Amino acid sequence: MYKKFSNGMIELITGPMFSGKSEELLRRLRTLSYAKFNSLLIKPEYDNRFSEDEIVSRSGLKEKTHTLKNINDIYNLLKNDKYQAILIDEAHFFGQDLIKVADDLANLGYLLIIAGLDQDYLRRPFSPISDLMAMAETVTKLQAVCVVCQNIATTSYRKIKNNELNYIGDFNEYEARCRRCHILANKVKKE
Question: InterPro entries attached here (predicted)?
């Protein structure tokens, strides 16, 4: 399925909270391990909800990872080992620098598999993931189930009052919602 591409490649896994992005990233890591790929797994230091040094899916899958404060620090990790693939979870927390770094690493021949939110809690495009969608060779957009109407959910609704863009939370702070239920809830919230 994968090989070291001379011109590299970016694969993007995106969708709302509770759609299984981390689980899909770990599934792809497992597939790469079957093919004997030497893979580097990273996540932002900022996201320590479930573990300081592991990527943990809500289904219980977990894998040891490197945590980085700044995505540019990835170059230090690449100096000593011969990685073929780089997998990045919760990538939206790395900010705009991720766009240049991802493009650079793909140009150097790495396979990048990047998982992150494509929309913020107000349904606006969430950069850098929204920008990477245009650059990626493949995009997998996952959905969740709306907690209100049980239709397909494509958004992350913030239940609490907090305007911070990068607010870490889980079931107590967020819900998966379809477009309609997200819009209706925000109208009620404003009234």
Answer: P-loop_NTPase, Thymidine_kinase
Q: Are 78 and 40 in contact (CB under 8 A)?
A: yes
pLDDT in tens, 31-83: 998 988 989 999 988 766 666 677 676 677 777 888 899 999 999 999 877 89
Residues 6+ apart with CB under 8 A from 126: 92, 116, 117, 118, 119, 120
DSSP state string for 14-72: E-STTS-HHHHHHHHHHHHHHTT--EEEEEETT--SS-SSEEE-TTS-EEE-EEESSGG
19 is in an annotated binding site: yes
Is 17 annotated among the ligand-binding residues? yes
Which of 63, 90, 173, 191 is the catalytic position? 90
Q: Considering the entire predicted model, what is its pTM?
A: 0.88
The amino acid present at 57, given as its one-letter code, is S
90 belongs to the catalytic site = yes
Q: According to the annotation, is 175 in a ligand binding site?
A: no
For 26, the token pair is 């770990």
In this structure, is the dihedral angle defined by the CA atoms of residues 100, 101, 102 and 104, taken in order, positive or negative?
Answer: positive
pLDDT digits (tens, 9 = 90+) for 123-147: 999 999 999 999 999 999 999 999 9
Cβ pair 178, 153 in contact under 8 A: yes
SS3 category, 81:
coil
135 Cβ contact partners less than 8 Å away, ≥ 6 residues apart:
10, 99, 102, 103
